[in-house]
Specification:
about 35% strand, five-stranded antiparallel β-sheet, 13 strands, elongated, alpha+beta, disordered N terminus, Immunoglobulin-like
């Protein structure tokens, strides 16, 4: 075989190998989230007749232990038989989970965030047809030294009614992996945080003991206030007026 032909074959093999790596890595990233779930979701205000709005979050996300970065997909669905009209999806972070960006959405100003939250984005939707869904790529960080929660309310475009609210629902793990490249977190699981010294040398990474006090914080005060406000159809309109 000539050197020219050998080089061509070698180049084709390298290109094929590179393509395979790209495809496999992309597939692994997509599969990391697992099935979607509406766990922690509830109807707050009654939606217009024929409209049934819900949201979905992945059952599993993965947090890079070095950068603390993570990514997930937030989905809003209309399971009814009539179009929704103008609505908006909100993506809000609590405690150790901070929402950094939601593709195609705008950040919520700090004075308009619900009490207890650290970040949030608003995603206006002109109309969600019956039986259709719309998904958003969410970039976030997760401090494994804390617990972390996320909330997905679906509101009328003017914010006066909340038709559906998922959360604040926790992501977490009962088996932290501070020495691994990444830690998988499960939806609806309360995190047992790693110690503040998670960046110390090997042997210094000890996991804190968790007692009854930690176990008795299913949603926290912020979550309770959110649910109370949502049930009244007010969510954070009082904060906006202030």
């Amino acid at each position: 075989m000539s050197s020219r032909r050998t080089a061509a074959v070698t180049g084709s093999l390298v290109a094929a190998s590179f393509s395979a790596v790209v495809i496999l890595s992309g597939t692994a990233g997509a599969e990391d989230e697992g099935p979607a779930s509406n766990k922690g979701g509830k109807v707050v205000d009654e939606a217009p007749a024929g409209v049934k709005l819900t949201t979905l979050l992945p059952e599993k996300i993965s947090v890079d232990n070095g950068s603390e970065k993570t990514a997930l997909t937030a989905t809003v669905k209309n399971e009814g038989n009539k179009d929704s009209g103008k609505i908006k999806l909100l993506v809000v972070g609590f405690d150790g989970l901070t929402v950094k960006n939601v593709q195609g959405c705008s950040p919520i100003a700090g004075n308009n965030l619900p009490e207890g939250s650290n970040s949030g984005f608003s995603c206006p939707i002109d109309n969600l047809a019956a039986g259709k869904s719309k998904s958003y790529a969410v970039d976030a960080t997760y401090d494994l030294g804390k617990t972390g929660k996320i909330c997905l309310p679906v509101q009328a475009s003017d914010g006066k009614k909340t038709f559906w609210q998922q959360g604040p629902v926790p992501f977490g793990t009962t088996n932290p992996s501070p020495d691994a490249p990444a830690t998988p977190l499960l939806l609806g699981t309360h995190n047992e945080p790693v110690s503040p010294g998670k960046g110390d040398s090997p042997g210094g990474k000890e996991l804190p003991k968790t007692g009854p006090a930690r176990d008795l914080l299913p949603l926290g005060a912020a979550g309770a206030s959110l649910l109370a406000a949502g049930a009244a159809g007010m969510w954070w309109s009082q904060r906006r007026q202030a």
